[in-house]
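Hey everyone, long-time lurker, first post.

I ran two proteins through the pipeline my lab uses and got sequence/structure pairs for each. Pasting them in order. The first:
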Amino acid sequence: MIHPTSRPPKRDGATILLALCEEPARIVPVDKIWNAYIRVDDVESSYAGVQERGAGIDYTLYDAPSGFREFDVQIPDGHDIAFGQPLKPPS
């Protein structure tokens, strides 16, 4: 459930809604895939910002087969958050 008094994190016009789980044991990291994916307008800038803050990079920037340029960070509890930007179609 979304906690009624929570203030969702916001940055650069994006809002992330987080849910509260009454049974934390049910939340487990997923192996070999991200747990959350955040689509951004400038993935290169996002990557630089994450590096500056010392986040644990799980995989570096690359052009994924899905058509996104993306990277992934792993947060201390083992969950993965990916950030990506659609690749421009060939002109």
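...and the second, right after it:
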Amino acid sequence: MSASIPRDKAQQGELDVPADKLGPTGRPYRDIPDPQPRDKHGPAVIIAMCNQKGGVGKTTSTINLGAALAESGRRVLLVDLDPQGALSAGLGVAHHELDETVHNLLIPPYAATDDVLMRTRVDGLDLLPSNIDLSAAEIQLVTEVGREQALARALHPVADRYDYILIDCQPSLGLLTVNALACADNVVIPMECEYFSLRGLALLTDTIEKVHDRLNPRLELGGILVTMFDQRTLHSREVMGRVVEVFGDAVYDTVINRTVRFPETSVAGEPITSWAPKSSGARAYRDLAREVIARNETPA
């Protein structure tokens, strides 16, 4: 398939595709249908946004993909599973002041999921927030029976209300991340277009395979999202070619370029789709949402 052909071969003319029709992945853009409206919601497709390397745009992608899915008429729940609380802060939540967070859903005495649930400024987008309290959860969970399923138990009461649940994992492969993988239908890996990020994918995909074999047989790789891409640099283009060569169709056509808009949205506490709705970053995440919907929803 064309998705498995490295970028340089496409550019050398081995594919019968004009150069101006190729996307940043070096492949022709795939035909993605427009999302169909939903007349009912749920049960949710649970997606773990996961990469053990920090600074790859994982939280930014979780927020903006969630907002773009909500724009498409989907009901979306974001789960902040990182003790740093960046997802919560990025949505304008004063997370350090919260009394009940995801931590209270995982560790007894358990809080009710609805008591932790928060609405956001975006219609159709809800949040389970987190803060530094969650940092103790990995140690506290060690002695719990079924510790890998703690998050699944917390999400079960609300899963039927949503079309998508996006889990923002912390940058590690510890017990919290295993909890996310154990309840997810698929994993989206945001990956900075940089050599060391590429090296780390092997360890991550190995962890995904182990969770699939031992804890969650429905878990699969949902896609690779290349972030912080700079078309002008040879390094970015070479890394992109290698990622497409190894992962083929799993690599999304949508690529997130570097832009100053994303740090601005973090300060503003809202997604780029509402902060700068006509920006290239907003358009990219809307395109990504279309791809995610196409991969996870069966046409009527």
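Reply from user beta_strand_b:
Welcome! Quick read of the second one: Confidence is low (pLDDT under 50) at residues 1-15. The chain has one domain: 2-14+39-295.
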